[in-house]
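Methods: holo model generation. Sequences were used as deposited, without trimming of termini or removal of tags, and paired with ligand SMILES retrieved from the corresponding compound records. Each pair was processed once, and we did not select among multiple samples. The sequence and flavin-adenine dinucleotide SMILES for this entry were:
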Amino acid sequence: MIGWEDSANDSKGDLFRWTEDYLERTTYEISCPVIRDQALAPEGKTGIIISTLLDYSLVKRISEAGDYEHYKEFCTQKIINVLEQSLFPGIQELVLFSICATPLTIEKETFNSEGAITGWSFTNKIMPSENRFKKITNAVQTPIPDVYQCGQWTFSPSGLPVSIVTGKLAADQVKKNLK
Ligand SMILES: Cc1cc2nc3c(=O)[nH]c(=O)nc-3n(C[C@H](O)[C@H](O)[C@H](O)COP(=O)(O)OP(=O)(O)OC[C@H]3O[C@@H](n4cnc5c(N)ncnc54)[C@H](O)[C@@H]3O)c2cc1C
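and the model returned the structure below.
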């Protein structure tokens, strides 16, 4: 499948058509938190989170054209439709409500540039953080005495495991220095 920049002639219809095609072919991560914690939904109900990757610039362009709300509704309906046709026949009728978050939402909520879902981009020529696994203990150090850091910006490649590991390493450092 060609990228949206190559297939779209800047028209709204093209971008929506490309998105529709993409949502039919992409892979989805589906999670159901109520399986772990029943208190998250009323009895007999559940919630599912369906995620896929989408280019920030595409959503930004659509937003700048004033079509953001329409686009989110379009994507939501398309994704439900894909699930209806594949994994979950009948789901369409069961949906009570849905919420759609895009890379613009993540940017607004987290200030991560371009709505990135995790730390430093692999395309950085020089990584602004420690990136050697054998030296991961360096990741928690800062130039300020007695101040340690942890989380997705402190080591690359990042993600949940690195955030947890650096949190533990930083806590260990603090404990060690308190003795
Ligand atoms: C949709 C999505 C899917 C993902 N999938 C995966 C995956 O499959 N595997 C994986 O490894 N990683 C995944 N990640 C990335 C992973 O979730 C993050 O890298 C990780 O959660 C970052 O942890 P963190 O502790 O550094 O930051 P965060 O989890 O962002 O925690 C920062 C905390 O600081 C709080 N905060 C912010 N500002 C302030 C302030 N001024 N004062 C006080 N508190 C503040 C925030 O509210 C937040 O609770 C995914 C991320 C997203 C968005």
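The chain is about 40% helix and 5% strand.
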